[in-house]
Amino acid sequence: MSDYCDMAPGHPFHGPYHDHEYGFPVDDDDSLFERLTLEINQAGLSWLTVLKKREAFQHAFEGFDIDRVAAYGEAERARLLADPGIIRNRLKVEAVIHNAGVLQTLRDAHGSFRGWLDHHHPLPHADWVRLFKRTFKFTGPEITGEFLMSTGYLPGAHRDDCPVQARILAAGPRWVRA
């Protein structure tokens, strides 16, 4: 993602994400769910579009509370599909709600979404992709790879000469611990 390290610093949306989130370990399940949701919604669109709509996504999906989203019914689906602040794609909305239910199951079996990720770590990218495709909806190779890089499970978020990379390494991402 070397281009990102060049263009993101100083940008009003990319800069804060690049400097403080992208590639850093994420432990909180709701935050992991948010990242997965944002990556799913980025498919076919620019990351800037998603970052600009992030606050609206947080509001629309009630802070990415997994249990609340998993319980969404037809009224919530209709509300989301009518919300101009988010990406109103039926397949993506359905995937997010479905994936929240999957996360409940993973949490029951592994204690948390992070526990499930840690249980399977380390895996090569191709194995992660197969696992995500079997487990979640709307998770192809790019979505899976970006999700795992953005949350510290796979390397590659920053170049070695990017100043943020040293801070990420100090935070102990899981790919370093492998």
From TrEMBL:
Keyword rRNA-binding set for record: no
Highest taxon in the source lineage: Bacteria
Signal peptide (residue range): none
Example GO molecular function: metal ion binding
Binding site for Zn(2+): C5, H18
Pfam family, any one: Adenine_glyco
Keywords from the UniProt entry: Metal-binding, Zinc
InterPro entries (alphabetical): Adenine_glyco, DNA-3mA_glycosylase, DNA_glycosylase
Record GO biological process: base-excision repair
Stated name of the protein: DNA-3-methyladenine glycosylase I
Organism whose genome encodes this protein: Halomonas alimentaria
